[in-house]
Amino acid sequence: MSDRVLEVSGLSAVFATREGTAAALRDVSFSLEAGQRLAVVGESGCGKSTLALALLGLLDPPGQMIGGLIRLNGRDIANLPERQMKAIRGREISLIFQDPMGSLDPIKTIGSQLVDALRRHQPGLARRAARRRAVELLGEVEIADAERRLGDYPHHYSGGMRQRVMIAIAIANNPSVLVADEPTTALDVTVQAQILKLFERLVDRRRIALLLITHNLSLVADFCESVHVMYAGRFVECGSVDAVFNRPAHPYTEALLKSIPDPERRKGRLPTIAGLPPDLRRLPKGCAFEPRCPLGNGRQICVSVAPRRQRVGGRGEDASAECHFAAEKMTAGVVS
Amino acid sequence: MIRFFWKRISASALSLFGASLVAFFLLRASPGDPARLFLGPFAGEEALKRVRADLGLDGSPLLQYLIYVRRFLAGDWGFSYSTGQPVATLIARRFPATLELGLYAFLIAFLSALALALVAAYRRGPVDGTARAISFFTMGVPPFWFGLMLLLMFFEALGWLPGPDGRLSIKVIEPPRVTGLLTIDALLAGDFAAFRDAFAHLALPALTLGLTPFSFLFRLLRANLIDVCREPFILVARSGGLTRWGAFLRHALPNAFMPTLTASGLLFGQLLAGSVLVERVFVWPGVGALVTDGVLKQDFSVVQAFILLSAAIYVVCNLIVDLLGGVIDPRLAVSGGDR
Fold first, then answer.
1. Closest chain A residue to B246, measured at CA
2. Residue B275 pLDDT more than 90?
3. I need a surface site. Which of A277, B2, B177, B215 has the fewest CB within 10 A?
4. Which of A82, A107, A121 shows the shortest C-beta gap to B328?
5. B19 vs B12, B40, B69, B76, CA distance in Å?
6. Whether pLDDT at A183 is above 50
7. Which pTM does this prediction carry?
């Protein structure tokens, strides 16, 4: 795979809290190719956003990266000094946040924020040329009448339009990787669909590698090729969206999928996952999901031994699951 | 935007009207007969009547008020009963001293609050702790006491700065009056010795007077900076390639600055109107002494003119920061215009 733009291996991060150290990311590994769309799903607090920040080297104290490699376009950026990191952020890797209302500076015009983003990485770009580029970018994210709306302030824009502006800023300098942390969560459903379509076109047109971080599984199903399921700071299952969604190898994935509301099955209560995610400061010795797991359920091996990453048969070399009974579950799945 | 400006300006005019009413009726309601004060205890009834008619005191209160306003606008602020001089002259002679002191005090307060708040909010930790401890001290300490301590130290003990002997040393010749602000006049005249002397005289009183506004501005700006730093757009700016300090200066500071700007207007007005105590300590020939004397001697016209003048300064300072605020933060102009 020569197109590999981002390769992360063994990434670990902690948060120092008053009652001990919380392990927010534990040995996270994955890779992204140009034009690929990868989803990271999981409950709130499982470490998704920490992953996004860690990738850009934006993890501020009390958070801290304690290990791992982040290879972006062939260069390890995990331990680069701030001076070199700032030249990479927004240029090789960009981040889009959940909250389009708060993501733009309220007292600067849309135009000046776009121009700033452009000129920050292209110091030679004249102000007038940058403005023309800004108009083009707004056109590219489908904001009508871009020329005139350049002088508007964020409060003149709707939530969906602001998210479009955020996308325009994120792609302004042609990054090879785009990290989108819950990019549509704060938007209403029709706008969500429009934004996703826009993402799709941009990723295809510009061959950007997209890392979509979300808790919304239906979004992933329609939009991404591969999915990594995160639990307590680890990827517990990885694979193609089709395989993982049709036959989950990890009981956590299965439980997550069951808790998606299904419009055809309106009777009865929505199944939920019992219990809460574990306290990241006091992780169990064995499998982190064991206390909530219908499969584990007090089995000796689940309580005492942390499961290793296992290949899942017949799913290609990137597919894996971290469960003692993944293989057993897959064969059982065939029978039922 | 024009609508916003217009609204703010008319609101200011209304405030001034209110202030003039208060200044007028408060003093009319206070005890003491101006005509009696003017003529002394042995004047006859006829003479008193004549003076009352001269002063416009025999008409209805409304008529008296209208006369008062018309004369005030024309620059006729009445006579001081105690000195017999026109109030306008008295104030004009002394106001520049107060203005210069207030300007320097404000400059010291504003700049040091800005610098310290930036460092404290950016570095946090022990730096922040120290800065806050300083601001607690400066907020709690009484200015007149602090002024005395400064005098004891820098004048008595060290002899670095001049003592409480006004705006200039006796041996220094006052530069030709242009603005009335001695430091500026000295510079205009190219008289650097006079500038240095005026500046040295300003240092301690300005520091003393700036103490309270400094604490206030520092705490306000620091708190707002820390708040704004939690906003997502700061992280967004950093994710786009700004350093933490760059995002702090370009995005956090402008957003956190609004409340500080508003407070600055208020504080500057307060500085000019409230420097009485500090002027006492440093024997500063400003309006403070004039007004305290005026109150003690029931010198109505002086007090009245001062009240209205301070109100005017206050309103103008507020108007300026309001308009500036509307320019800096366009959201204010929108909501302010509709209200």
1. A86
2. no
3. B2
4. A107
5. 11, 30, 11, 18
6. yes
7. 0.83
Which residues does chain B have within 8 Å of residue A88's beta carbon, measured at their own beta carbons?
241
Interface size A-B, in CB pairs within 8 Å, comes to 71
Question: Going by C-beta distance under 8 Å and a sequence separation of 6 or more, which residues neighbour residue B142?
Answer: none
Residue A89: list chain B partners with CB under 8 A: 238-241
Place of tokens 């700004």: B242
Burial of B131 (0-12, 13-18, 19+ CB in 10 A): buried
Number of structural domains in chain B = 1
* Best CA proximity match to B183, nearest among B165, B196, B172, B170: B196
CATH of the domain at B325: 1.10.3720.10
Q: Give SS3 for B226.
A: helix
Q: What residues of chain A have any CB closer than 8 angstroms to a CB in chain B? A: 56, 58, 82-83, 86-91, 94-95, 97, 99, 102-108, 116-117, 120-121, 153, 155, 166, 169-170
Nearest-Cα residue of chain B relative to residue A103: B233
pLDDT tens-digit readout, A202-254: 888 889 999 999 988 888 888 898 999 999 999 999 998 988 888 888 889 98
The pLDDT mean for chain B works out to: 86
* Nearest CA among B220, B242, B208, B18 for reference residue B120: B220
In a domain, B82, yes or no: no
Q: Using the beta-carbon criterion (under 8 Å), do A120 and B240 form an inter-chain contact?
A: yes
- Structural domains in chain A? 4-224 (3.40.50.300), 231-263+278-335 (no CATH)
> Distance between CA A116 and CA A132 in Å, rounded?
13
Q: How far apart are CA A179 and CA A213, in angstroms?
A: 8
The answer to whether residue B316 sits within a structural domain is yes
In a domain, B154, yes or no: yes
CA distance A10 to A265: 41
SS3 of chain A: CCCEEEEEEEEEEEEEECCEEEEEEEEEEEEEECCCEEEEECCCCCCHHHHHHHHCCCCCCCEEEEEEEEEECCEECCCCCHHHHHHHECCCEEEECCCCCCCCCCCCCHHHHHHHHHHHHCCCCCHHHHHHHHHHHHHHCCCCCHHHHCCCCHHHCCHHHHHHHHHHHHHCCCCCEEEEECCCCCCCHHHHHHHHHHHHHHHHHHCCEEEEEECCHHHHHHHCCEEEEEECCEEEEEEEHHHHHHCCCCHHHHHHHHCCCCCCCCCCCCCCCCCCCCCCCCCCCCCCCHHHCCCCCCCHHHHHCCCCCEECCCCCCCCEECCCCHHHHHHHHHHC
Q: What is the pLDDT of residue B335?
A: 56
Torsion angle of the four alpha carbons A248, A249, A253, A255, in this order, in degrees rounded to the nearest 10: 80
Q: Apex CA A254: angle with CA A252 and CA A255, to 5°?
A: 65
Q: Is residue B64 part of a domain?
A: no
Domain span at residue B185? Answer: 87-338
Pairing mode, if any, of strands A310-311 and A20-33? unpaired
Of these ranges, A29-33, A56-60, A178-182, B112-116, the one predicted with the greatest mean pLDDT is B112-116
Phi-psi region of A27 (alpha: psi -120 to 50; beta: other; left: phi over 0): left
CB-nearest to A95 from B239, B331, B334 is B239
